[in-house]
Amino acid sequence: MAAEQDQDAARVDADRGSSFAAELERDAEHRAKARSIKPLSRLLPFVLRYRGLLAGFALFLVLASALTLILPAAFRLVVDCGFAGAADAAICRKMALGDELTGYFVIGFAVALMLGVASAMRFYFISRLGERVVADVRTAVYDHLLGLSPSFYVNVRTGEVLSRLTTDTTLIETLVGSSVSVALRTVATTIGAIVLMFLVSWKLSLMMLAVGPLMLAPIFFFGRRVQRLSRASQDSLAGASARASESLGAIETVQAFTRERQESDNFRRAVESTFAVALKRITVRALMTGVIFTLVLGGLIAVLWFGALQVKSGAITPGAMTQFVMYAFVAVSGVGMLTETYAEVMRAAGATERLMELLSATSEIKAIAPAAALPKPLNGAIRFSNVAFAYPARPSMQALKGVSVNFAPGRTTALVGPSGAGKSTIFQLLLRFYDPQSGSITIDGVDIRHFDPDALRRSISIVQQNAPLFAGTAADNIRFGRPEASDAEVEAAAVAANAHDFIKALPQGYLTPLGQGATTLSGGQRQRLAIARAILRDAPIVLLDEATSALDSESERLIQIAFERISKGRTSIVIAHRLATVLSADRIVVMDEGAIVDEGTHAELLARGGLYARLAELQFSAAREAAE
User: Fold this and answer.
1) How far is 230 from 280, CA to CA, in rounded Å?
2) How far apart are CA 249 and CA 521, in angstroms?
3) For residue 412, what are the β-bridge partners?
4) What is the pLDDT of residues 278-313, one digit of tens each?
5) pLDDT digits (tens, 9 = 90+) for 200-230
6) Is the pTM of this model over 0.85?
7) Model confidence pLDDT, tens digit, residues 92-122
8) In DSSP terms, which residues pair with 542 in a beta bridge?
9) What is the 8-class DSSP label of residue 473?
10) What distance in Å separates the CA atoms of residue 61 and residue 69, rounded to the nearest whole number?
11) CB neighbour class for 365 (10 Å; exposed up to 12, middle 13-18, buried from 19)
12) Between the CA of residue 577 and those of 139, 146, 387, 424, 600, what are the distances in Å?
């Protein structure tokens, strides 16, 4: 059992590693930008749900922007009135508060304090709105994904979908909770600063506008280069991480084939490649910093020089010059900030577009008119009438070819046949994961396409091959089909499934966390937990994809006993991998290449010869040879 658990854990770890690697390699696609901001309009319904938060944000945005523009005027008062040499003594006397010097600093401090409070409240409202919108988007997308039919996932990778739920929604969170706020505030303060610059000194403003392009050109030129190199660095790092996750996820295979040195060399080359790209980015960014500092400071010094001449000639006051410089700084930094924000907005637009693609996907599995309610009580008489079906991924290959078969209520029917015969497809269609291209499937005489898919599935218990379990406790996994079940009902189901003893032996019994995929359990234990889950569901129809071929004889015997308990008095269909397990079935249906080739009891089928007899001879003779 321990060896089996180790093999299962290694297989799961390898699957996780390859999945994580694939997700990292696709991360570059998630950072792709949209061609326009039009996709962002799809977020409006989510944003407009919270008008109170929007109003609070708008109020404090206007207030913070106004105070940002008032602050330089307050500094002008401090310079002109707080220090000697005011140009307009009347204004200074009018604005004085108590002590002639202290009052002007009190004004400046008051404006700064109000700006701090307004900025904090603006940040609070927009950040809360961003978190709320992203939570709603994630929930809406996930709820929608749960309702899509399995055919949707044939062409869409699960890792890709999960990455959209995380990476893309994070970009939207950055947009709504930060970028939009920064962009609106920056636009307002930049436009206001430029207007006020002209009111303070139109000559200095014209000179500033003349040198402005020289100051901003390197930001645009180097900024794009740095952005490209940053993306290349992230992609290179993703490649290195993908390689490491694959190797560590399959560490037993790596060590078994003595590939440690080669894998280390591969990772080292990937890391060195990442370092080389990062070095280019650092070099360009250092050059950009030097050029920008030189040009920006040079331009400002030129403006200050001209302003100093204006102050010396008495054309403007020192306070007005201080005010102008502060407005100029707000305008220049605002334009630079907008270039960064624009890139974030376009990336978020791309993320929104990808998420809305998921929300736009529709499920083909719906109740068709006229809708019908499931009969109560449900007898469970199932009939397939001339059913033909091909999976969407393989439209030219029919999985079922004109299948007609009855499953008697309260009886156990076994499906046998070679791999690819169409046995599991019977289950897929009965659960309405897909609809057949032709023919019909009825329960108690009603076509199942008229039933609500949820109601139909609630009437069915299924034990799948290699039954998937979930992170959580043993009790959580048994309760999966009936969350409201009591502890006593959970324990009774476990007893009926021959799972109670091994569950009680776990460190915390039914409350023992099993880990992701319940990999701490053996295959037979997981199968018995799945049967307990099906027993607790207490549905009139039971489907068992019997996966006992890889289990030891004791586990197989316990599972067989548990299945006999769950199938008693219910319409039961079992896919048999070992013919020895279906000898007691009421009827056996033999399938081959999507068609039913024979049916009857074990004795009748053996007497007629054919495919079943050949399969029985192969299995039973192999068992005899193994015993000998």
Assistant:
1) 9
2) 19
3) 572
4) 787 778 777 777 776 777 677 777 777 888 888 777
5) 888 888 877 776 676 666 666 666 666 566 6
6) no
7) 655 554 445 566 667 777 878 888 898 889 8
8) 461, 572
9) B
10) 12
11) buried
12) 40, 31, 23, 12, 17
